[in-house]
Amino acid sequence: MSDMTVRKIRVLLAKPGLDGHDRGAKVVAHAMREAGMEVIYTGLHQTVASIVNQALQEDVDVIGLSIMSGAHIPICRKLMGLIKEQDMGDKLVAVGGVIPNKDIPTLNEMGVGGVFPGGTHFDEIVKFIREKSKN
Amino acid sequence: MGVATYIKDEKDAIKEVILQSGIKVRPSYTPEDLERIGFDYEEDLGDPGEFPFTRSLHPSGYRSRNWTTRQYTGFGTPEETNERFKLMISHGQTGLNVAFDLPTQMGYDSDDEMAEGEVGRVGMAVDSLRDFEIAFKDIQLNRIGSGLTINAVASVMLAMYQSMAEKFGYKKTEISATPQNDILKEIVGRGAWIYPVEPAVRLIGDTIEYAMKELPRCNPVSVCGYHIRESGCTPAQEISYALMIAFAYIDNVVARGYKAEEFVGRFSFNLNVFGNIWETVAKFRAARKLWARLLRERYGVQNKKALFLRGIFGGGGSGMTKQQPENNIMRGAYYALAAALSGAQTTALCSFDEAYTIPTERAALLSLRTFQILMDEIGLRDTVDPLGGSYFMETLTKEMEEKILEEMEKIEKVGGMVEAVSTGYVQREVARQAYEFEKKLQEGKITKVGVNKYTEGVDMEVELHEYNEEWARLQIERLRELKKDRDNKAAGESLKGLEGAARDQKNVMPYLVECSKHYATVGEMANVFRDVFGEYVEPSIF
After folding, report:
1. With contact defined as beta carbons under 8 Å apart, do B269 and B223 qualify?
2. How far apart are CA B345 and CA B337, in angstroms?
3. Contact state of B434 with A23 under an 8 Å Cβ cutoff
4. Whole-prediction pTM value?
5. Mean pLDDT, consecutive 10-residue segments, chain B of 542 residues?
6. In terms of residue numbers, what domain contains A119?
């Protein structure tokens, strides 16, 4: 941000799949906004295709997924595949929610940039996005 | 996470205690406090079992009847779930509380594209009556009642439960099911909604009307403050929202020409237990009192039993932490104690591993044992409302009552609960509070053991429930076979009948029973409603 870019970091915060627990997503959305980012929240029950589509249309820098159901591996696999197909490799993907530690390496291998299990400090998420996003 | 705010001096002495509902706790209470709040025994308490039931619904509390234990159970295929049901019952559990997977809760069959990766994951997969026949095999349905944790398609599940019981030879008048069936809280706090608010509330009205006539031992709705509290609201708001939601459902059925007195006695509640123990107990005492009083005032209900706020008071997931997970065993025990001191009819406890995933067999049994120890060893059945008459508890109960009424007033001002949910008013309020709470926690202004205090040491590793992808394959295979084996013509006709009833504003329940008996699938029935009602669109709350 040293070049005084005016454009704010744009984040698409998405709730993929059928899981309806959105407390975490909304709390993180508040925190990112307070940190000066522009946050677009998809609402619940999004398909992976629709998330990728919204990310393209909104021209976001970051796609954040919030998943509580335990289905983070199949969902991320699908998303990362689609991102590759659409040539959107420059987007930073981060995942939060109920994520057991043992799954973090698998997610990283798929290309998920950051994994933030429940309870992660806002500062940590914000710092990570500021450093890693291409903005 | 339900923690009060403590303001301390430099020597760690507590200067001020502010409960989540906004009530300040004094260092000590005396008869003067009762005078200050205008306490009156008859009006505010009454004897246990007497109006306004602040102390208890029954004169002798747990002496006459122990509480029902109902751990939330279900995963994988109906076979897996049936085994776990039987295991829990063999260990002394006295009711069932069925967990459905997300596709079932959202009205998708297991072979639907939307179900991918989710079949049998957070609960049992149910596609048709055949799955219920497997899941409830060898369960004595005239003795064991079942909570069905499902909302958007609760009407479908209740119809299926009745059909299954009848196939097993039980009379519909002797079975007891409690579908959760609370769509307004689903929209606010749990997210498993399908249809727009108005037809969704109508479906709830249909189940209440049907149960009143056909299923006398069923509790057609379990009004949930629980999930709204999980989403971030205060204990006072939890009760105020739950009561306002209950009034919305009552109004729907009253508009059909019934008196509240005829059906409201079958309502039940699902409320949350975690956080500050005194605030929790006061919350339940105030809730019982307000429900009884407001049913009298608003709807003229007179029958004593119809005024009972009965419910499952469950140990809350939000209190549990991912950090140092074994600490949750102790937390659960204290929550169970709070539930017992609050006069719960039915209890359930989130297990210590639930911050990670659904519980293992070992974790579920530990939760059950926690309740059993309380009742059989510690003395919680000895006398009713043991905290009754405490200067502190009576003052706090009255203060909670006032806070709850204040919050109800706010909802009335925006036009009632249906309106407040449709416009996103409640969702905004809840999300704001969740954020403020999380911020305070991260700043260390409120304390959570193992999270922002006493965090030293190695994080304990716990054995976790593992999802098996094979379950989805088996379930999809069974669904394919079902569609080949069943009488497809009869199933199709029953679905047409359902569509007509949905369009013509007839009560859909008898039609759902008919569809279930012809093995129409959950997805097929839910899609009939999708076609007729459309789907809910979330209001933007930011």
Report:
1. yes
2. 13
3. yes
4. 0.95
5. 85 95 97 97 96 97 93 93 95 94 98 94 96 98 96 98 98 97 96 97 98 97 97 97 98 98 97 96 98 98 97 91 92 96 94 90 94 94 96 98 98 96 95 93 92 83 88 97 98 98 98 98 98 94 74
6. 10-129
